[in-house]
Amino acid sequence: MEDMDWRFNTHILISTAFLQILQLVSGVAIGPGSDYKSATVALSEHLLGFRSGYRTDLRPVNNPNTLTRVSLDVHIIQIIKLVEISQVLICNVWLEMKWRDEYLEWKPEFYNNVTMFKLPAKYIWTPDITLYNQADIGSNLLDNKMEGIASVWYNGEVELWPMPLFTKSNCQITVRYFPFDVQNCTIKFSSWAYDGGEVTVESMASAERQPPNYVENSEWSLICSRSSNYTVHYEGTELDDYYEVHKNIIFRRKSKFYTFNLILPCSMLTVLLMLCQSLPLSSGPIRIQLVVTLFMAMAVFLLLLGRTMPASNEYPLLGFYYISNILLIAVATCMNCIVQNIIDGGALMPRWLSRCLFRSENSDDSQDKTRVDLNTRTKKINAKNSTTELMITSFLDPKI
Questions:
Q1: What is the pLDDT of residues 49-76, one digit of tens each?
Q2: Of 50, 165, 278, 377, which residue is 20 to 30 A from 16 by alpha carbon distance?
Q3: How far is CA 357 from CA 33, 86, 344, in A?
Q4: How far is Cα 297 from Cα 36, in angstroms, rounded to an integer?
Q5: Which residues of 29-50 are buried (b: 16+ CB within 10 A; e: fewer)?
Q6: C-alpha to C-alpha distance for 325 and 273, rounded to whole angstroms
Q7: How far out from the chain centre does Cα 309 lie?
């Protein structure tokens, strides 16, 4: 017991003598009467000065077998844009990182009870956390971390808040239910040079978190965002597993713009197609003109949809709706041409059409027996519907 007290007293004497020598050399007063600024300057000189031997390029552990555990949290501030053509998600995120630096430890009682101080992150070791699925090769997350401010505690705990990041990550989107689709994109963060035997990366909060300072996007509505931990092993390497943090972002498209600009006009064109087929037979050329106009309008909407969607094997249901309407318009155009040919040429109904309509085995014989001059019938129809034809013609051509 006396041996332990002697060692403790010896340690106190040596520490006091060291502080006095440091005070005389540096000219800074360290002790209960010194202010916070002087204590912080002396502390930073003691931890990061030339004589401390601190290296920013070496992992801060005394034993190389010691793991450096990095806690990472990703805060989604805003969804800037989702580029469907190139399948790239652009977000504004904040990163929060925590780890323990064994070289940045001190006793607060020797430095005016200073338990924490802040300094630029470029003066200390920082984990090389990298965005793994980045779409912009020119962006560098390490440069952004160096511009942040780190908070260092007396027990070696370090907390780093880098500057806000604009991430461009790859995102496999689904367009089947466009414009009522829900997208699920993932942002992957991990250490680039250190495997799991040296640095482990884990999420601070695995539950869903809605950032309080989230900025709404005009096109996308954020449903939720969650963080999860993954362990990945790359085949063909002798390295240990890599620890990754995946940030899943689930968001829904705001469909009002597309509803009023793509869906409602197409529905109105479908109604016009049905009304066009109800016109009298005497207005044959006018009916054909209307149907061809509807066909061109539907083709324009299909072209607009194709420019919005990415080139992939998955096709949206809205595109199938457009194609089905185009097929209906094509069939209506063919039928109108056949009917107009029969009326103008005085020809009989084709046998295949008679069989399809009447489903009679003796349709050919009955058609031969009931031959009627179609020109006479056409004149009667024209006499009954002359007023309707004149109204339609004047509506389409105001010069008449």
A1: 766 788 888 899 988 888 999 999 888 8
A2: 50
A3: 108, 51, 21
A4: 75
A5: ebeeebeeebbbebbeebbbee
A6: 9
A7: 14
